[in-house]
Every structure is written in C-alpha cells, then in structure tokens.
Design goal:
- By secondary structure, the protein is α/β, with parallel strands linked by helices.
- It has one domain: Alpha-Beta Complex (Inosine-uridine Nucleoside N-ribohydrolase, Chain A), CATH 3.90.245.
- The chain has a 9-stranded mixed β-sheet with strand order 3-2-1-4-5-6-11-9-10, sandwiched between helices. A two-stranded antiparallel sheet has the order 7-8.
- Strand 4, helix 5 and strand 5 form a beta-alpha-beta unit.
- Helix 4 packs across helix 5.
- Bound molecules: alpha-D-ribofuranose and calcium ion.
- The site of alpha-D-ribofuranose has 16 residues, from helix 1, helix 6 and helix 11.
Length: 324
Amino acid sequence: MQKVIIDCDPGIDDVLALEYALRSPELEVVAITVVAGNVPVHLGVDNAFKVLERCNRLDVPVYVGASQPLKKPFVSAQDTHGEDGLGESGIARRSTVSPQSQTASEFLQEYFATAKDTGVIALGPLTNIALALTKDSRWGQNITRFVTMGGTYKSHGNCSPVAEFNYWCDPDAAALVYQTLPCQIEMVGLDVTRKIVFTPNILEYTKRMNPECFAYLQKITRFYFDFHWQYEHILGCVINDPLAVAYYIDPGLCQGFESYVAVETEGISIGQTLVDRYDFWQKKANAKILDTVDSRKFFELFLTVILNAPEATIASDLQNLRLG
Ligand code: RIB
Ligand code: CA
C-alpha cells in the first residue's frame, strides 16, 4: 500500500475522491488536511468526517487548515457544491470526533521533516501546502509524489475563461508551490478531468450494482447535476478529484508531458496556469501536465472500489455501457 496524505476542500467531488482513496486497497490514507475552497474550512472538516463515518474510518486523523487564501479574499464554490458542500443533501455528522489540535500546515511541515515514504494528493486550493513551504523552503523534498487536481493547459477555465477554481481561489499559494516545491508537480487539470463525466447512465448503473451506494451518490450529486446542466449544459457532473486519486494509483491512466508552469497572481487572467510547453522561457520543467486520459479505465477503477464489485464484472459491463 502507498501512503498518502490528502489535502482537500470537501465539496462533492472531494468526498467521492476521499471515499475512493479510503476504500482503495492500494492506498493507506495517513491523514486528511482540509483547506478553505469549495466551502469554508469548518464545513470542509465536517464533510471530511462524514466520509470517514461512512467508510468506518474515524481512525484517520483530520487537520484543520487555512480558512483564507494567502492574499486574495476568500470566495467559495458553494454555488456549485451547495451551502453544505454536499449538494444540500442534508447528510448529518453522526460522531463528535474532533479534528487534531495541530493546524494542517504544522502537521504537514512536521510529518515531511522525517517521512520519506508518503505522497500528497492535493484536491483543493494549495494554501496549506504553501504555508508549509513558507516555514521551510526545503520542505517537500521527502514527498514521494505530489499530485494536484488543478489548473488547465488547453481546456477553458471554470472560474474565468482561463482559470480553474483551485488555483483561482488562491493564486498566490499556487504560484508559490509551482515556484518552490522541491519535487515534481503532477498537474491533473481540467484538460483530463473534463473527460470524467459522471452521467445519469452511470448513476443508473450504480443502482443495479449497489442500491445503497446509488442512494448516497444520487443524494450528493443531484445539486451538482443541476449546476452542470445550467452552466455547462452537461447531463451529469464532472468529477474532477477522483481522477487525481485514480491517477495516483495507476499513473498509466493519464498521459502528458513535462514543462515549466507559472501561475498568474493578478489581473484579468488571475489563477491561470501558463504552461511553457515550447520552452520560450528556457526554465527547468517543474511539472508534469496530464492532457490525455482513458476515461473508461477510470470508471472501471473507480466503480470497482466505490461499488465494492468484482473488477471483471465492472470491466465487462462498462464495455457495453454507453458512458456518455
Ligand atoms: O476546479 C475543480 C476543483 O475545484 C475540484 O477540486 C473541486 O472540488 C474544486 O476544489
Ligand atoms: Ca476539490
């Protein structure tokens, strides 16, 4: 099992990613750190606990992270994820387990001062990562892999014509991480996540395979479906974050290229990832940008775990299922 720490802003696709990671036999989720993003950080912490309760994994520690971006005023994505961050599903916390007393950035800083066998999957704005870095610019050299859901290369933005939410929400943190993190950044951006659409067809398939899971998925994605139809005229919803987890587990799922990336921190294109694929700036590549994905393979991996079904059955069924 690969040890990972998941930094997230639980929101709907974050909770799907967390459940996938927690139930995956390939990953050991060492800790969950929460950052303000889709929802204010305290709601994100509540939603992280709701996933841990659902997966019977309250043994996994949760750390409260940044409530604000480094500089930019905080703007949530509750218009997309609902006021509660779970599609206004009304799912309540059952336990009273508290988060850890250390802040997320303190924990990250301390953990990676010694640990050399753990990766990071960042599913939200990079504020916690940036705060750990500002305390010690060498921080992060022990991270085995750093996978971030964020940014976009050629696909249009989802917060502006050019900016993706996680990096738009805290552009200064994203810029700092891309400038100084001493390990390669694997950027799972909108170029690949937009190919991962959880459609009504797939939702209906989950009903046949695991009625309990279907009821939960339907409850938390209904609001998200409505948002996607209204704003992107998509039937279904783009589930960005689970792809970052699947890619961590199976790097062959996505293909891409190495390049220098900078993040814009001001002006009309704030939050844009500038991918210097043709090396105009002659700077050392700091990232691997993923730009192709096998979406059918993704759903095989994801649904096998989420539905707790035999992989062969899922693989065979998906051959005949129109994903779109
Ligand atoms: O732009 C999509 C990303 O922003 C996803 O991680 C979503 O959960 C939000 O955090
Ligand atoms: Ca997220």
